[in-house]
Structure formats: C-alpha cells, structure tokens
Amino acid sequence: LAIDFQSEPVRVVVTGAAGQIAYSLLYMVAKGDVFGPNQPVILHLLDIPPMMGVVQGVVMELSDCALPLLRGVVPTADPDVAFKDVDAAFLVGAMPRKEGMERKDLLAANVGIFKVQGQAIERNAKRTIKVLVVGNPANTNALVCSKYAPSIPKENFTAMTRLDQNRATAHIAERLNVSCADVSNVIIWGNHSSTQFPDVRHANATVNGAKVSVSEAIKDDEYLKTQFVEKIQKRGAAVIAARKLSSAMSAAKAASDHMKDWWQGSANWVSMGVISDGSYGVPADVVFSFPVICSDKKWTIVQGLEIDEYARGKLDITAKELIEEREEALAVCQDSNL
Ligand code: NAD
Ligand code: LMR
C-alpha cells in the first residue's frame, strides 16, 4: 500500500515532549503505528519553556529518522499553539512519582496542568478531538481536563489503563507459556492506581490450539484473585524501584495501542478510562476504566458481564477512591488562580 500524499495530515499533539515517554511515543506516532501506515501526520510538541532546548533536539532526531509519514513538526511552549486544530492529543506532560509515592500524591502538583490544557483545548481544538491522558493521576486528570473544555463531548476524554491491561495480558501469557496474542479479554476496572481491579474472569487463552477460559487454563482461582491482582496493581511501583524512573517504553507502547484502537477500531475488548454512565453500578462523573469495544472512532462499554460479590467489592473500592480524588482535584482547581 502506498502512502496517500493527497490525504489531509492528522494533527497530533504530544505534551511532555521533552520527557521519557514522549521520546518513545513520538517515534511510534510518526512512523504510522497509531493512525495507520498510510496516514500522514503533523506533530505538535508541547513542553514548558525551560525544556525548549531539549525539544529542539527531539525535533532534530525526528527529522533524522527520515519518516515518510511525518509532514511537519510544531515545537512550542504555548498551549494555544499546541492545541490549535488538533485531531488527537496525548497528554503525557506531568510530574512522575518517585519511589514510595502513590500516584494520587501527584494530584496537587499535576491537576493544574490539566485545567490549563482543558481550557486551551476548549479554545483551539477541533470538536472531534480525541484526548488520551497519560500523566498521573490519569483518570482524575482526564476528568478535570474535560470539565474545563465543556463544549467538547465528555466521551472524547479518556485515561490510560492500557498499560495495566498489557501487563496483565503478558503476565497470563508467560504463566501459560503462550504468546500475548493468544490471550484476550483481560479487563482492567477502575482507577490507574493500586486499587485497580485486573479481572481475568472473562478472559480466554489459546493453549495447544484450543480456546479455553484463563481460569480453566490456570486452575488456581485463589492465585488469580490475590497474587495476580496485587502483582498488576503494584507493577508500576516495581518498575520505579528497579529503574529509579517510571515506566516509559511500555507506557508509550500502551498509549499507542490505546489511540490506535480508538482511531482504527479494536478487534477485542480493550480497557480504557472513560466517563462513567453508571454501567455496572459505578457512580457517574468519574473517569473509570471499563472494558470497551471501539468502532467508527467511538468506544462503547461492553455490557452484561457478571459482577459477583468478589468483583462488586473490588469495583466499589476503586470507585470510592476516584470520588475522593475528584473532590480533592476540584478543590485544588478552585483554589488555583490559573
Ligand atoms: P518525564 O518527567 O520524563 O517527562 C515529563 C515532561 O512533561 C517533562 O519534559 C516536563 O517538562 C513536561 N511538563 C511538565 N509540565 C508540563 C506542562 N504544563 N506542559 C507540557 N509539558 C509539561 O515523565 P514521563 O516519564 O514521561 O511521565 C510523564 C507522566 O506520565 C507522569 O505523570 C507519569 O506518572 C505518567 N505515567 C502514566 C502512565 C499510565 O499508565 N497512565 C504510565 C507511565 C507514566
Ligand atoms: C505506571 O503504571 O508505570 C505509571 O503510572 C508510572 C507509575 O507511577 O507507576
């Protein structure tokens, strides 16, 4: 298939463009992993003024990659320039946590960024913009961003739990000694935090050519309900302890997967933090990770899954945390004069 040079490029903003995640993500976007192998892109790179020198280096490297789909790069420290006419936004720029912190400890430091960027989206972006929030605490930042861009549909703001889904899928695949491609329908419910509920009760795996449920294949429900859940909940902290930096390559891959499925359609269920409509008894007005299917550039929550007493307990804990985060975030936004 030839690249269609006549087709209009999509404008994509990546914030935190001088940071770790962006360094992997920009390459994935510019080479066609996200918007398709024939879709030209123009990249808008936003960071703060002191990082503009570093951003210039990233611009040089993007040029030196000689990528046929990359039709332009706009480096800037001005949110109004960054969000002008953009079709898709990866909101990565925010402080990462250090060892010993929970992601919600970043709330006071980071939430103001998403208020300002919500306002810039409201003023500048296309009404169809698709926003993926990566910066932590991602669910609550996405909610705040959407509240400050009231004319854009709430469905257009999502938060990343795909890294948790990928972690859980890879973990199950390793345990069963199969490829990640042989494991499907792993779900992440709730917050991208240590209260998230990684759920394999509806997941399947292809083992020795036969499709079976993951519970049947692993034959250890106690393990799946306890150690497995904790392992995924704490995986981000384990990476920080080992790397002394938070995950970046895997976070960029997850961001690419999330936006690709939203833009191009998903083959299986995928988990995305989306505005709750009350499905599965989850309170409204929080950004909660649900299993969704994407088609026609829209996500739809997968309905009708059984929620037993064990799952109910897990969903309620993570929903409660999101309500608490929302209240704290809105108070911070009201206090700040941004
Ligand atoms: P990093 O420190 O390497 O990069 C962050 C960049 O954001 C820096 O260049 C910084 O200057 C920039 N920045 C700060 N304020 C900004 C603003 N107002 N506008 C634009 N840019 C701004 O961090 P990183 O490792 O790339 O991580 C970025 C964020 O992503 C962190 O909050 C981290 O916790 C989060 N994260 C989320 C997930 C997830 O699964 N949702 C996974 C990994 C990391
Ligand atoms: C992750 O899940 O790796 C990121 O959210 C970074 C972190 O703070 O754990």
UniProtKB/TrEMBL annotation:
The keyword DNA damage does not apply. The active site is at H192. GO terms for molecular function: L-malate dehydrogenase (NAD+) activity. GO terms for biological process: malate metabolic process; tricarboxylic acid cycle. NAD(+) binds at D47, N110, V134, G135, N136. Residues 161-331 form the Lactate/malate dehydrogenase C-terminal domain. It catalyses: (S)-malate + NAD(+) = oxaloacetate + NADH + H(+). InterPro entries: L-lactate/malate_DH (IPR001557), Lactate/malate_DH_C (IPR022383), Lactate/malate_DH_N (IPR001236), Lactate_DH/Glyco_Ohase_4_C (IPR015955), Malate_DH_AS (IPR001252), Malate_DH_NAD-dep_euk (IPR011274), Malate_DH_type2 (IPR010945), NAD(P)-bd_dom_sf (IPR036291). Substrate binds at R97, R103, N136, R167. SUPFAM superfamilies: LDH C-terminal domain-like (SSF56327), NAD(P)-binding Rossmann-fold domains (SSF51735). The keyword Repressor does not apply. Its EC number is 1.1.1.37. Residues 10-157 form the Lactate/malate dehydrogenase N-terminal domain. Keywords: NAD, Oxidoreductase, Tricarboxylic acid cycle. Belongs to the LDH/MDH superfamily. MDH type 2 family. This is Malate dehydrogenase. The lineage of its organism: Eukaryota, Metazoa, Ecdysozoa, Arthropoda, Hexapoda.
